[in-house]
Design a protein that fits this description.
eight-stranded mixed beta sheet, 14 strands, alpha/beta, six-stranded mixed beta sheet
Length: about 375
């Protein structure tokens, strides 16, 4: 059996080199057949989606329907339910992109509190590949639970998630360490691996201890800086601007903008890829990933504190003016009453705790069409 270190080396070699961060990338030349009907403009092809930054930081997506989905926390069934409700995923279990030229944005915290984290990451990557072929795209932003796992903080990892890591490494071995084949294909086979593991479950205590240790080691290999899943997460930003909307997990503040959105994204990306030594440069990813007011941890906009309302409004207004955006979409803090907007609808809060590991609430998503936003719920819509 090949060693884990060999797997890591080969996967890092297969990782795409970083392009110059300011180089605009044309994701797709949208054809008439793939785009003209979904937006009601028959005979007129849409302009292509153009991405600037690596990881993606600024996205121009002219005339696209935009769908944003909040925290998923390892619950594959609820993730599929949300995506089906949003009209971007087939309901036949085949995981087919149904969104046409739409843009899907997932706001982070795929990891922790659930068993099927890698399967969700795999599903989102598969949908991105399919979406690009239709003139659309899928983007993710990293949340605090992604950065925690890269840091080696596994406090919120479920036992089933450790098992999934061990299973995935075995599957990667079966795929002869072909990362794209294994990662993109994992969502379609993960259920079988999970069922087979349950059927072969041992009741002998020492064996279960060995299995747990195997899962912890596998997770460390996958998520440590430079590890294959850490490199996969490094493909995603912590702050993403699509047209004139900002998407981030916790919340963007004026001092983040002053520091530089693209600068933060690149620094976190390099850290996740193992390209910098965090101990020697502790402040590089700090403003984005650590501390109560960092981009992924900030809860200023997602909690209602009456005595802070004026401050919250001013911070939101100053931030959006600084980046030339009309509104910001955040996750991170479950909204017990459902997704909502505040501060004259300049902040949209869409984490509803849908994972069974959080609130197990009904999925809700945000749809932005023609620059107007509405919350989509099961058999219900909330327009503003």
């Amino acid at each position: 059996m090949r060693t884990l270190s060999r797997a890591m080396v080969s996967l890092c070699l297969n990782s795409l080199p970083l392009q110059p961060s300011s180089y605009p990338q044309k994701l797709t030349e949208t054809s008439l057949s793939s785009s003209s009907f979904s937006n009601g403009s028959i005979g007129t092809a849409l302009k292509p989606i153009v991405v600037s930054g690596n990881p993606p930081t600024f996205v121009s997506a002219p005339a696209r329907r935009i769908v944003a989905v909040g925290d998923l926390h390892g619950d594959l069934d609820q993730a599929r339910c949300a995506l089906e409700m949003a009209g971007v995923l087939s309901s036949d279990g085949e995981d087919i992109w149904m969104g046409g030229d739409a843009v899907l944005i997932q706001l982070g915290d795929v990891l922790d509190r659930g068993d099927d984290e890698i399967a969700i990451l795999s599903l989102l990557r598969s949908l991105d590949i399919q979406a690009k072929a239709k003139g659309g795209a899928v983007f993710q932003v990293n949340g605090n639970h992604e950065t925690m796992n890269v840091e080696g903080d596994f406090r919120y990892v479920e036992s089933g998630a450790f098992d999934e890591c061990a299973d995935f490494l075995e599957y990667l071995n079966e795929c002869e360490y072909d990362w794209d084949e294994a990662f993109v294909g994992w969502c379609s086979v993960s259920r079988r691996w999970k069922d087979e593991r349950k059927m072969s479950k041992h009741n002998w205590g020492p064996w279960n201890l060995v299995k747990q240790q195997k899962g912890v080691i596998a997770r460390s290999v996958l998520f440590s800086p430079g590890g294959p899943l850490a490199c996969e997460l490094a493909r995603h930003a912590v702050v993403l601007q699509v047209n004139d909307w900002i998407f981030c997990h916790g919340g963007l503040l004026p001092h983040h903008v002053a520091y530089g959105i693209e600068r933060m994204n690149v620094e976190v990306c390099h850290w996740m890829r193992g390209l910098i030594d965090e101990d020697s440069s502790p402040h590089m990813p700090f403003i984005a990933t650590k501390g109560y007011d960092s981009v992924v941890w900030n809860r200023l906009y997602s909690r209602d504190v009456l005595e802070l309302e004026d401050y919250q409004i001013n911070q939101a207004k100053e931030t959006l003016q600084a980046v030339g955006a009309k509104a910001m979409v955040v996750g991170h803090t479950p909204q017990y009453s459902g997704a909502n907007c505040e501060y004259n609808c300049s902040i949209w809060r869409i984490d509803v705790g849908m994972s069974s590991g959080v609130l197990n609430s009904r999925p809700e998503v945000l749809e932005i069409r023609d620059d107007k936003a509405r919350i989509e719920k099961v058999n219900n819509q909330f327009d503003l």
